[in-house]
Amino acid sequence: MEILKWFTKNDTYSKAKMSQVKQVGLLAAGCQPWNKDVCAASGDRFAYCATLAIYIYQLDHRYNEFKLRAIMSEHKKTITAISWCPHNPDMFASASADNLVIIWNVAEQKAVAKLDSTKGVPASLSWCWNAGDAVAFVSHRGPLYIWTISGPDSGVAVHKEAHSFLSDICLFRWHPKKKGKVVFGHTDGSLSIFQPGSKSQKHVLRPESLEGTDEEDPVTALEWDPLSTDYLLVANLHNGIRLVDSESLCCITAFNFPSAAASVQCLAWVPSAPGMFITGDSQVGVLRIWNVSRTTPIDNFKLKKTGFHGLHVLNSPPKKKSLSSHSPTKNHHTSSTSEAVPPPTLTPNQAFSLPPGHAVCCFMDGGVGLYDMGAKKWDFLRDLGHVETIFDCKFKPDNPDLLATASFDGTIKVWDINTLTAVYTSPGNEGVIYSLSWAPGDLNCIAGATSRNGGFIWDVPRGKMVTRFSEHGKNGIFCIAWSHKDSKRIATCSGDGFCIIRTIDGKVLHKYKHPAAVFGCDWSQNNKDMIATGCEDKNVRVYYLATSSDQPLKVFTGHTAKVFHVRWSPLREGILCSGSDDGTVRIWDYTQDACINVLSGHTAPVRGLMWNTEIPYLLISGSWDYTIRVWDTRDGTCLDTVYDHGADVYGLTCHPSRPFTMASCSRDSTVRLWSLTPLINPLQINILADRSWDEIIGNTDRAVEPGAPPLLCGKVSRDIKQEVDKLIGNPRGKKLRWFSECLSPPGGSKNLWDLVAVIKGQDDSLLPQNYCKGIMHMKHLVRFRMSKAQELTTVKMSKFGGGIGAPSKEERLKEAAKIHLRLGQIQRYCELMVELGEWDKALSVAPGVSMRYWKKLMQRRADQLIQEENDDVIPYCIATGDVEKLVTFFTSRGQLKEALLVAQAACEGNMQILQLSASNGSSNPDGNLEDYNELLHRVSKELAEWYFQDGRAVLAACCHLAVENIELAMANLIRGNELELAVSVGTVLGESAAQATQYALELLARKCMTVTTWDLAADLLMMTPNNELQLVKLCAFYPGSTAEINDLHEKCNLPGVEECMQLAETAQANGDVFETIKYYLLSTEPEKALPIGIQYIKEQISNSDWTLDSVCPFLDLLSYIRTERLVLHKCSEVRNELLILSGYAGALLAIRRQYASIVPALYEYTSQLLKRREVSVPLKIEQLSEELDAWRACTQLANKSTDELSYTPPSESQRMVYSTLVSRIKEEPLKGIIGPDYVTGSNLPSHSDVHISCLTGLRIQGPVFFLEDGKSAISLNDALMWAKVNPFSPLGTGIRLNPF
């Protein structure tokens, strides 16, 4: 009985280890602007590298958009080149500066081969065309090495001729058709060409102007002409582009640029348009389109202000899918400060000459995007990402939505963490920036510290550097700290051994000399004159500024290697921590002069350190061992370890008003957002269960007692309590909302609460300023857009200009016109169009105002009338009132947000239907309104579905609330496992959400059925109506002593255990099976219930007309038998039967709920148990596989993931089997709960923590759940769905699963 080792007396729910810190957001890096081959594309995927990691984006066909699929990081030094295998889209190669080449399997995201002695750094790398599994690489002077990865001749060979070059190699390219032919480009501008059987040509074809000189003009790009065996396009940085013949060694065409200043950085052929190629300029982001037959470009587009770095054309452009399943406008990829230039307008004859295709563009500032050349728009733009290590990150003191990051790449960027886009970026390049500090309050300035250029203060909104500090000379400043209590003082510490305190206008107040470099400093949170430092001499020092002495008040010794950061506790006076290269964190008590704890666990130097601002004992550290650890400093235990970063973790931060949302930054160039809320369970549930204040808020002394449950001790929670105490009447709704906003991560919870308030009839004037930026309630959508249109028309540019990338007057008018049009204000639209000189657009809709108005416009500018072939669909539809067509048009283009606006405007009666014949004037406006309403709901549903499958359940719920579809909103929260939020919101919404709230409470109660929180589970169930049965299950499962069990029975109004035994016997005598089971489970001998229940269920299933609903209540009740009774040896037969029946019922329930990903696993689990265990149940293995096949055949149409080609219609017998299944399964009573679960962060790729699911055999994307053996992993989504339909673990041990 190996199972028994899982149990300890009081924890029958052997809690599987599941990372408690939840990843809720990721800011991807940009593409590195050094080395040549840093982006690659293949089929519907493209990749780029950022220093240490390779980012893989893949097309999501359903929404026709690219999504981040994987971050692959095994390199320890900068990646120098990547290459996609031309004949196998899953194979990929990368090389790095530590002489390493790795071959990856992209689908499994794992390294399949490594070569770690490349004799020199590979500068360029490429798969050998038509040579099976071989990769070639070359360092700057050669020779060319060829590594055969597998097969009989695996190993590294040297190319016979490609060596002893006279000039460095920039890059090389194999010929795609002519086997073995290869060309090299050199820094002196020459080429070298080798092919088997011909004389090798070294250093030929230098640009003519360079002949006879020793000037350098490096080859920036080289590509073989796909239509010929000998032609080659070459770009030199200064001498432009030539088409050369590699056989006769002559130049066929030299291409001319419009301006002499233009220089080419990269080029690519367009496979879909023979003879066409594109180039990117090196100084400015101009994309030029060429045809080999013309020496000048056919077209030029300015895509960005910064120059190009790399270009690739996707060989199979994304296919447009059928209507009605697209994502909303992808404007969330381009931030407000995005450097991207708006798309140019063009005349139709130009549009035909452009090649269709998508170009992957990488820019010198790290921007990377996918540009649709045919439509002239960005399909995807990752603008302004950091391209190197991010050393520090901090939230803005007065705005928890703004996060600043400082990087090795020389910039500080400020991000909006709700949209994950950059709002500001610091001007110029400052070298390496090690540290940043916001000015306190609302001063809107950031102080930065650099490696060589001193310190500076950046005025963020004005975009200017206002002050520089040079007291440390050229020495690196490792830390800069603006005093929280006195906004005039700034501290810096440096490699020169000084910690300097100065005023912001540069007056030095103190210079504290240390015996070695000083790496960290931190102002005390309680005493404005106290500062601590961390020094290379392994010591921590505390200085007191109010004295003139330059000696420390205290020196703490104990670390065995250099001390980096120090942090004072915000809640416990005199307590500070320090992180060191010895891998430990030490906690010091200033008042006792002592080290009170040593936290060991990290295996490398510690960098990031952060105290929680509400829970006094919670401390978080980040290390060079790639992990983040969460500590309970009372006894030094590590509560959780997070393995998701792909390199050293440097900065950790959280905002006091959102104390459980943490940001971290790393050498992997990403910023990640985490929710720490699961660490403080059961606090959140205490709030939901309306427990007394002293179980929620406490003082620090109480909270730091060993073993005390978590209590909130910070300012935010105290403020909430004060506000709640002021309220008259029932404060519960407000209390739930305020705590929910404080505990929930960003990403829609505030938006959700605003919508709840609107639905509950709150006055609109109380809505916050930024309400209009999120998902608005339908009744506000049109009104807000109208005022925005007016504002756009009248606003005058302020004297500073409108910030980065502010729109011109023309753009503003266009934007305003667009809004007026969608609001049905046709005349205003015409006037604006006329002002912009777009007569055709004005005229095509003018009749919507009146025929007279149209004539007047015609006369005013008849001579300006230009006949265009393309009639603009949008104005036409609006003028004629054809809403349906317009909504379909927007939806088909994936502009769901636009479709929503139009549908809502129609519902408000803003669209006029043109009555053409006056005779039948009896139109029915009400009928239309109903159609429009249905349309509105349909579009909101699509938008919600798009958010939901993107791992943003809360925003999906917002979309449903906006059209007051409360049922679906609640269902999205439950399916996203946002149970606490669902209960809070459901409680406030009241009756309309009652059914869903009850379900969420039941799931939460299951979550609480662990050691410490049984009574909480009872409290939650008491909040639901008709709760007797749920309380029975809770008591049946409770593992305490008889006395404890009786206490719980009493709390739940149930008879004591002795009495239950008698009741069971009476019920059995009366033949009432359900009551018999119920009371036996509550008695001293619960195992007596098993044979009775199982026998009954077997009899039911043996009838031909049984249904799921006739057996589920019995199975569900039986599954709550105490685990230690279920695993007794004498129960093994009934236990196995219970597991098999639960598995089978679970499979049917999963079909009912459309949990497609786990249906096969449940059938497989049931078959395996049937095969391996001695049982007699009325189920056959053949029957199970028949049902599974029938389900697959009959639902494959619905799950369109399979290719259209391989579709075979289900056979007649399969249809029969499936229809029998459906008749058994019946409808799901809870509407909207149908469909897979998808928790926040499911769409985020992990970086270094890779797990394979034991259910599907595939790599798990998003959060992982470990089963009770501690090794087997499944995705959290699958675990949730499994537990909802079958409570027992997939390992067949009889242990209940608790992933909630």
From TrEMBL:
SUPFAM superfamilies: Quinoprotein alcohol dehydrogenase-like, WD40 repeat-like. Keywords: Repeat, WD repeat. CDD domains: WD40 (cd00200). InterPro entries: Quinoprotein_ADH-like_sf (IPR011047), WD40/YVTN_repeat-like_dom_sf (IPR015943), WD40_PAC1 (IPR020472), WD40_repeat_CS (IPR019775), WD40_repeat_dom_sf (IPR036322), WD40_rpt (IPR001680). Residues 318-333 have a biased composition (Basic residues). Residues 312-349 are annotated as: Disordered. WD repeats lie at residues 72-114, 383-425, 556-598, 599-641, 642-676. Coiled coil: none annotated. It comes from the Eukaryota. This is Uncharacterized protein. It comes from Gopherus agassizii (Agassiz's desert tortoise).
